[in-house]
Amino acid sequence: MKKFSIVKQGLPAALFVLSAAIFTLAQDSSSKHNVRPERTPAQTATVDTTRSAPPVKYTYEFTQPKFYVKHIVLEHEATGRGTITFERLNEDVPVVEPIELSPAALSRIIPYWKALNFLDSQTDYQAAKQFPHLGTMRIGMQQGDRKRVAEFNWTNNDSASGLVNEYRRIADQAILVFDISIARENQPLNAPKLMEVMESLLKRNGLSDPIQLLPLLRDMSTDEHIPLIARNHALRIIKQIQK
Length: 243
What we know:
The protein is of the alpha+beta class. It has a domain at 53-157. Helices cover 45% and strands 19% of the residues. Mean pLDDT is 86; it is low at 1-49.
């Protein structure tokens, strides 16, 4: 009886200790489940409310009905990819060719556009003195719903003048490359003359980016379909470009 009494008296204390341990464990477990780990800035989701600007389209147009190349339209994106359309005298069907401005050409052209602040400007680039016999030039830019075209036949604005000069070189180079491709396919005897035209443009800085022409010239230097004189001339031009 005495032994039983001792066990019976000690039982509530043991149960109290056990209950306290269970309560503490449950509290710790509940605390772990209910407390969210703090997010680091990298984990925090952010909503980008900014919208990318609409792509920009640039255009250059030249018209002089009495010139051999009487009409040129050059269009390109900010990446340099675009098309050139040109018409020759006494030809009714225009030629449309893909074009890609080189990074070197773009590095000269884009600063001119920025200097003009073209879309936000209403500047008239036409000089007081007119030279219509030299042809009419139009430069244009479009971005989304915003569009502007400026026309002139002569300008004293340095940025506008520099811009049309760059586009003229791009057009001359692209048209020359087209003529060379036609000569190699159908009129190989025209190749020597075209090499002379290329060298002349090169000497007077009339080409947009001569480095772009190196793969074409190397290919021509081994093309047995064109006269040997044209192949040798291509090799000479390569050396001039690489100087």
